[in-house]
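Justification of computing resources. Each target in the renewal requires a structure prediction run like the one illustrated here; the chain below, 182 residues long, is used simply to show the kind of job we budget for.
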Amino acid sequence: MSITYYHAKYYAFELTKRHRDKCHIYGLRYLLAADILSRTRQADPAFFEQLLVDLLLAMGYGGSGAGMAHTLGKTGDNGFDGVINHDPLGVDQVYIQAKHYAEGNNIAAGEVRDFFGALNLKKNQKGIFITTSDFTSLAIQTAKRLGTRIVLINGKELANLMLRYNIGSRDEDVLHIPNFRK
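Resulting structure tokens:
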């Protein structure tokens, strides 16, 4: 077993091979998430909206029926980019707002309030607001204070969800790492 020592101020700790390997895995996952987010930012808006619908279906929203989710990103979509039906008749729906923004172009509170207003016009209580960038702290506070359930997903979370549910990626080789115990 190899041991590496790291010293930080007055503390020292040892890093076993197992822990070092785990750090490498997390590092690779971070790089892969950054790459998939970069590629997603470069995709055209229609592809991005369909990707989000596919992701939410893979996560279990809408069940398994055909036609349970679709994109709306057209003129006259009332501010929504997609909708997912929780039941075959579409009585219970979740609306999707997608913002395909560059890094640093963060979503402000006004955009969250606009989404909230669009949900109210549909008399709907559930929405998912997804961006390839991030949300300002005021936008996050606004979403929490509103009476409607609005889930915010930023670019980092989006990339991690895409990896978890194999949307925009696929498994080439799988390496099983045993759980070593002392």
